[in-house]
Amino acid sequence: MYNVAEVNAEECVAQKGCRLCIMYCPEANCIQMDTTKMVATIVESRCKGCELCVVVCDAAKHNAIKMVAR
Amino acid sequence: MGKKIQINKEFVDIMPQDYLDLVENGTFESPNRGWKDFGTATELIAEHSLCAGCPESIAFRHIMASIPNPEDTVMVGSTGCTSLVFPMIAVHNIHSLFGNQNAIATGLKRALAVRFPDKVKDVIVLAGDGATVDIGLDMTLQSWFRKERFTTICFDNELYANTGGQESGLMQKGFLAKMAPVGKKFEKVRLPEIARESGCDYVAIMTASKPSLVEKVIKQAVLIAREVGPTYIQIYTPCILEIGKQSMEGLQEMRTSEAPGERFKFREFISPEAQSFLDGLAEKKKAEKLAATGATS
Ligand SMILES: Cc1ncc(C[n+]2csc(CCOP(=O)(O)OP(=O)(O)O)c2C)c(N)n1
Ligand code: SF4
Ligand code: SF4
Ligand code: SF4
Ligand SMILES: [Mg+2]
To answer: CA distances (Å), B32 to each of B63, B95, B287, B288, in order?
Structure first.
């Protein structure tokens, strides 16, 4: 079992310019910007489950990411 | 001018999708490249085996997004955790024997200047603290004494991470590690000051907590190395594994260590020659901006 990050599109405020998780995820090409829906999107196969995206999203009080088991 | 990064048409159907993405959507030949490309463009770095949450990976991403001329850059790496990333970057790179990186970079930079006299070729060394300040210190210093024109980046995690936590010259005094159980007896080597005194025209000490600052520093360091003289950047990339932090705690560790009075508070040294070069660049940018607004109004 692995833990991976999952973005709740309802809560993500990327349309207002937030890019925090995309900036700080340690893995390259792992959180992508869905430019049509304007939400951050996790590429699960690249996610190592470190939870740093959750930390930065929560610190900004957006609470849009949670870890899920796969 | 044709695109420098192209794919041979015969190979299109057999190359992996990641490679095709890089050719189509990578940020080669982009004059304003930087961390803002994250999320929409393909980064010049692929899956690697560093630990989950390792700040070295964060710093690597920011650096690869910022180097000004990736298509004409050669990076030189050394043994250590960073060497696990080098096979996964889309920039030419050489793995050097542990500690030899600045000697290899010296020969490379000179050879590139002879082989490609009409082209701009940047050389960037990126190695751990063990490679830079312990085993490679001779090569590091000699390249600065000789004013070799390339950038040296040290990923300072204050110990030998890849071999399980031995003491390094950049470890803090009194620090205990798994394979340094007595505690370090000596002060952290002041390599930024040594770099300044040894001939570097630009020196910065920082953490990887602010992508915009990493971007600015990397661009300055590479451009100054190209035109003026050697440059040195020391970035705190804590080994969360060896200092007993969780995978999501690396960023906070960097922020704590760059507070006023702390050892990684951002500091910069710019020689007068490098400063006048930077001033010239700023002037040129201003003039270009003015010309652009003049042309549209
Ligand atoms: C010539 C040589 N000596 C010693 C080693 C063993 N060795 C491998 S990685 C390493 C330490 C690397 O430490 P550092 O440069 O700080 O990089 P880090 O892993 O901390 O990022 C050592 C001593 C080696 N591979 N080659
Ligand atoms: S940090 Fe949170 S709110 Fe911001 S872009 Fe990422 S998921 Fe959306
Ligand atoms: S859990 Fe870590 S690796 Fe996965 S998306 Fe979040 S920051 Fe990236
Ligand atoms: S051992 Fe330390 S420096 Fe190496 S990948 Fe893991 S966290 Fe990073
Ligand atoms: Mg180290």
So the answer is: 14, 28, 17, 14
Task: Judge contact between B241 and B198, C-beta under 8 A.
Answer: no
B166 φ/ψ angles, rounded to the nearest 5 degrees: -95, 165
Cross-chain Cβ contact B250/A19 below 8 Å: no
Q: Which residues contact B50 (CB under 8 A, 6 or more apart)?
A: A26, B56, B57, B81, B84, B85
Determine the residue among A19, A46, A52, A57 to mutate to test chain B binding: the one whose Cβ has the most chain B Cβ atoms within 10 Å: A52
Residue-wise burial string across B153-179, b where 16 or more C-beta atoms lie within 10 A, e elsewhere: bbbbbbbbbbeebbbbbbbeeeeebee
Tokens for A9? Answer: 């599109």
Atom of ligand 2 nearest to the CA of A11: 3
For the stretch B73-114, pLDDT in tens is 999 999 999 999 999 999 999 999 999 999 999 999 999 999
ipTM summary value: 0.97
Tokens of B6: 């192209």
**A26, B47: Cβ pair inside 8 Å?**
no
Cα dihedral B141, B101, B149, B113 in deg (nearest 10): 140
- Give me the CATH number covering residue B102: 3.40.50.970
* Nearest in space to A50 (alpha carbons), one of A36, A30, A34: A30
**Which ligand places an atom closest to the C-alpha of B163?**
1
Please state the rounded mean pLDDT for residues B142-156: 98
Determine whether the interchain pair A23/B43 forms a contact, defined as Cβ–Cβ distance below 8 Å.
Answer: no
CATH number, domain A3-69: 3.30.70.20
Domain that holds residue B238: 53-296
Instruction: Identify which of B106, B105, B112, B142 has the alpha carbon closest to the alpha carbon of residue B127.
Output: B105
pLDDT at A60: 98
In this structure, is residue B20 part of a structural domain? no
Q: What is the pTM (predicted TM-score) of this model?
A: 0.97
